[in-house]
Design brief:
It contains 7 helices and 9 strands; from the N terminus they run H-H-E-E-E-H-E-H-H-E-E-H-E-E-H-E. It is α/β, with parallel strands linked by helices.
Length: about 220
């Protein structure tokens, strides 16, 4: 790679890392929640305009899309300090003189089953369901973004019953783990575009990128 191209590559990595730091800051919380909804819709094959995905200033819910009232939550490794990781990465990139200085160790992704995710989602949503109560949850559609690094959904694994999740009171519950979306359940009074997908996993967005774009 020529020196100019090499410098441009490093500068692009720096720019992308700065954008990531801003995106994961507190001020961008609403945009992150909207982007998770965009990923859900794309993976379900539902066309939308970005202005149809509306942040709700008086949450819950976090985001409104047509008849859906999404309460968005991220499931991540609690030992991970994502912003610190990006800030440390930025420092490394700003010192980089060559492509070799930007390389990071590769870790082979490992599968995670529906059952493992089910157990983690139950635990994660339980706090919110107890806080809101069943009456309020009965009008909310839980949407969980799976942000576990180096894990991928094993779509061949057995899909569990979601009785515990239903008992928390949610109107519906889905999770996003690109390139897949899984609709755990959706009650009859839930969003029409989810009611027919109870227990189904969808992968309608074929591009490797762009899941979360709001443009």
């Amino acid at each position: 790679m020529e020196e100019g191209s090499e410098r441009k590559y490093i500068d692009d990595l720096i720019r992308h890392t700065k954008e990531s730091i801003r995106f994961f800051s507190n001020e961008m919380k609403s945009e992150r929640e909207r982007s998770v909804c965009a990923a859900l819709l794309r993976c379900l094959g539902i066309e939308f305009l970005s202005n149809q995905i509306q942040a709700n200033s008086n949450d819950p819910p976090d985001v409104i899309f047509k008849s859906a009232c999404f309460e968005v939550m991220e499931l991540f490794d609690e030992r991970r300090r994502r912003l610190d990781e990006y800030r440390d990465r930025l420092k490394e990139l700003e010192k980089a003189k060559s492509i070799s200085d930007t390389l990071v160790p590769f870790h082979q992704p490992t599968p995670i089953s529906y059952q493992e995710l089910h157990d983690e989602i139950i635990r994660s949503l339980n706090t919110k369901s107890q806080k809101y109560g069943k009456d309020l949850c009965s009008n909310l559609d839980a949407l969980v973004y799976i942000g576990l690094p180096n894990r991928f959904l094993d779509i061949r694994s057995e899909i569990p019953e979601y009785g515990e999740l239903i008992n928390q009171g949610w109107r519906s519950a889905s999770f996003v783990m690109p390139p897949f979306v899984h609709v755990a359940f959706c009650k009859e009074n839930g969003p029409k575009f989810l009611t027919s997908l109870w227990g189904q996993t969808k992968q309608e967005w074929k591009s490797p990128d762009g899941f979360f774009d709001l443009e």
